[in-house]
Amino acid sequence: MPFNTELTRALGIKVPVVQGGMQWVGYAELASAVSNGGGLGILTALTQPTPEDLRKEIGRCRTMTKNPFGVNLTLLPALVPPDYGAYAQVIIDEGIRIVETAGNSPGPVIKQLKAAGCTILHKCTTIRHAQSAVKLGVDFLSIDGFECAGHVGEHDITNFILLSRARQSLGVPFIASGGFADGQGLAAALALGACGINMGTRFMCTVEAPIHQNIKQAIVDAQETDTELVLRRWRNTSRLFANKVAKEAVKIEKESQTGKFEEVAPYVSGKRGRQVFLNGDKDFGVWTAGQVIGLIHDIPTCEELVSRIEREAIDAMKQTQGLFVGEGQQPVGAIGTVGKNTNNPGAEVWGVGKSKL
Ligand SMILES: Cc1cc2nc3c(=O)[nH]c(=O)nc-3n(C[C@H](O)[C@H](O)[C@H](O)COP(=O)(O)O)c2cc1C
Question: What CDD domains does this protein's entry cite (predicted)?
Answer without folding.
Answer: NPD_like
